[in-house]
Amino acid sequence: MVSVSIENLSVRLGRRPVLDGVSAVLEPGNLIGIIGPNGAGKSTFVRAMLGLVPSQAGRVAVNGRDIATMPPRAIARAVAYLPQGQTLHWPLSVERLVALGRLPHLAPLSRVSEADRAIVAEALARADVAHLKDRVATELSGGERARVLLARALAVGAAGLVVDEPLASLDPGHQIDVMTLLRREARAGGLIVAVLHDLGMAARYCDRVLLIDRGKLVADGAPDAVLTAERLAEVYGIRALVDTGGPVPSIIPVDRIEGRQA
Amino acid sequence: MTVPAPRRWHPTLLPVLIVLLIASAAASLGLGAVPLSPDRVIGALIGHGDRIASIIVYDLRLPRAVLGLLVGAMLGLGGAVLQGYLRNPLAEPSVLGTSNAAALGAVAAIYFGLSEWHVLMLPVMAIAFALGSLLLLFALAGRSESPLTLILAGIAVQSLALACISLALNLSPNPFAAMEIMTWLMGSIENRSVEHVWIALPCVAIGFALLLPGGRALDALTLGEDGARSLGVDLRKTRLRLMFGVAIGVGGAVAVSGSVGFIGLIVPHLIRPLTDRSPSSILWPAALGGAALLTLSDVAVRLIPTTNELKLGVVTSFLGVPIFLLHLLRERRLW
Q: CB–CB of A118 and B213 under 8 A?
């Protein structure tokens, strides 16, 4: 079980303020969506949460402990991270790639153990890529690669998981698979934080969404409370069909509101 | 459920490398200007040899063979580490500029006549310059974590060192001094003494000690910088180790051998297809392969009959280019 509390977090990249006084307490057992327009500061928010970008002000604590005082390996063992994009610099085999997730657990000079390999095999199975394990990761399709990289993050075996745009380049079937998987991880007690662009998916699967606009947290709560037509007009500058009351919540962006070009 | 351990190396890789290493060392000890029969060489090595054989083996061939292995191993490892760290298949041990700085130190020693005081002035100056360039590199790129700034700083250091070398050639008082500088720059391990071994050995040892444990950080960098840091890798520490390891190790190697190109670039490429292609798994094989390849090239220098003596750096480049091209054309699909 892991919880993350963010107090008054502000981040500048260069001289540009990117996050401005964001506070939130993220509790385990939840799938939390981070949404907002392009450039709103979503990725910076999750990166700062993991200590990957220095913050100007505020504090992030993992299980009550300030991350500024935690060694990087301790943060890595508590919260796994799947960065945006599909960066892969060497043509490793899928199995070898997923095994990188065990790095924070390895003692210096030790080899990957039997137990580590079992965890890797399980992560491959959970992300539905066990059949690809001997393939070369750089030769996979975009969708396969996305799931392999998700398996890499799962292989860390951390109680927290932060994924940045996990649905990019996935077909609808695999989008549903990934969201189902993330929700299952949350139900099993994990703290899952996902940066999402698909508002419909966020409405359907997330327990809670954080809406970020121009570096500020503008709404935080259950999807049906946050994702209202008025708020989407205000933040995204779009008119949208919002149906969050039914059994399958859906949000369909219709058109841009004149004069609201972001 | 038992999961078989994934193999990091092709089963033939290590045996082949070890055979090559032994063969190259044996050839380096056994072949030379004065023909010696194998039993005279072995006799000299174990201390029962005749005087002439002992002098040839101990004072000429042994230092040369050991230096070939040391320099080659360092260049191979340096290339493998830098390709992994910079995630660039074109990286080689000289990208940080420290080997050019070492060359500049040697050139300065020749130019100002310091090398005539004592044979060791040249390597000592070379190492001093390599370490000096590290300070410059540190000032330019020490605080950043991005590999790009390190490449840019390396290019700056390299260009400055090359400009100074050109200046020395330009201003050299007589053609003989210029010739001496040119000859040194071509790279060779001929006529090196035991003292040279004692200079190179600690530098290479420090280089190995700093670079070899960094394999995991290099593996993690496969996922990019954020990916690596989120796996608990301290990128700043990784970079410091690497800068010091390359400057001291490669600087020390270049100090005794001059510039020997291509070994550090091609050896990791030759090794990689026989491994699981992760940066960590090519470190040891690249060191062994570099040692064997450089020593074999040095044997070739002795065997190829030419009117002027052939230089090692020339041979490695001629050997390197075709191997490299052929290999890249075959491997292209994976990039």
A: no
Helices (runs of H) and strands (runs of E) counted in chain A: 9, 12
> Tokens 């006799």 — which residue?
B43
For residue B143, pLDDT over 90 is answered with no
Question: What would the pLDDT profile of A63-95 be if each residue is shown by its tens digit?
Answer: 999 999 999 999 999 999 999 887 888 889 999
Interface test with B, best of A90, A98, A120, A135 (most B CBs within 10 A): A90
The answer for B298, left when phi > 0, alpha when psi is -120 to 50, beta otherwise, is alpha
Q: In sequence order, which residues have a C-beta less than 8 Å from that of residue B308 and are 6 or more positions away?
A: none
Chain B segment 177-236 residues within 8 A of A by beta carbon are 213, 216, 219-224, 226-227, 229-234
Q: What is the ipTM of this complex?
A: 0.89
List phi, psi (to 5°) of A196. -130, 150
Q: From 1.10.3470.10, 1.20.1440.230, 3.40.50.300, 2.170.190.11, which CATH number describes the B68-334 domain?
A: 1.10.3470.10
User: Of B171, B238, B234, B245, nearest to B208 (Cα)?
Assistant: B245
Other Cβ atoms less than 10 A from the Cβ of A57: the count is 13
In angstroms, what CA-CA distances link B273 with A92, A100, B269, B276, B279?
A: 11, 19, 7, 7, 12
Alpha-carbon distance of A4 to A60, in angstroms, equals: 7
Q: Which domains does chain A have, with CATH numbers?
A: 4-256 (3.40.50.300)
Q: Which residues, at least 6 apart from A258, have a Cβ–Cβ distance to it below 8 Å?
A: none
pTM of the predicted model, to two decimals? 0.90
Facing A103 at nearest CB: one of B2, B226, B232:
B232
Q: Which of A108, A163, A155, A105 minimizes the C-alpha distance to A129?
A: A155
**Which parts of chain A have pLDDT scores under 70?**
109, 259-262
User: Interior CA angle at A239 toward A233 and A241, to 5°?
Assistant: 115
Tokens describing residue B14: 């290590």
Q: What is the pLDDT of residues A188-220, one digit of tens each?
A: 999 999 999 999 999 999 999 999 999 999 999
Residue B334 has pLDDT above 60, yes or no: no
